[in-house]
Amino acid sequence: MPEYVADSEVDLEEVTTDLVIVTGVSGGGRSTVARALENVGFYVVDNLPQALMLDMAQLALQAGGAARRTAMVLDVRSRAFSTDLTGAVHALRERGFNPRVVFVDAEDDVLIRRFESVRRSHPLQGDGRLADGITAERKLLAEAREQADVIIDTSHLNVNQLRRRVEELFGGEDVRRLRITVLSFGFKYGLPPDADYVMDARFLPNPFWVPALRDHTGLEDSVSTYVLDQEGASDFVKTYASLIAATATGFEREGKRYLTVAVGCTGGKHRSVAITEELTAQLRDMRLAAHSSHRDLGRE
Fold it and tell me: pTM (2 decimals)?
């Protein structure tokens, strides 16, 4: 019997297979599943004819690296689609592969609403009704559904919920974590275009005007101590760390995997660098996946 993943909360077994085969009904959410698999590190081959599944698996094995985690998406619209998915999977297993078959499904009335909302016809309806196309496709896919290892019912899942289900199955906890880049920069060189948060450290005294510190950077203890000992510096870092920590779970829930926090000063050499390093350390203490980067350090 397949492992059935409906829209109610269940405990999902973490999947560690290197080869995933995705099929299912049109309008069920295969494209979303494919994108979610890419997000967790799979090399995704879309609309692959079943006749080429073994060749693709062998190529992925020979290529190594990222291709060792490969997902094949089978589409009934392909002219080379075959109903003998069981035979194709058996052939893979005979060659030593251990594919896991995912079937994406949804209730008929949900599929009809989805097709009507985008004003598309079903690929198999021909001159008939939407319901006729859905029925014809279910007959073609009946054996594939029966033999699937995992059935994901998307009837009551939105895109973000479906993505999270795939990540729970195939990603592991570390892959789903928000990764935070704390980036120092100089305002005189322009704002980082990819910044999600921008912090302005120019309210702090500039070490540039301290002769003993001018030629040093915020990575050095002398500058870092000078900056962080200034009035308001500690509260500044602590407040932003709390803000980022408070929003991290929400960003993860909404599917955001990378967050850039930009910390600026005039030239990106002293204040922003010291604040960036301290903020990164505090975020790590909060068990967030954070690392520091310094865009403009060394430009002067």
Answer: 0.57
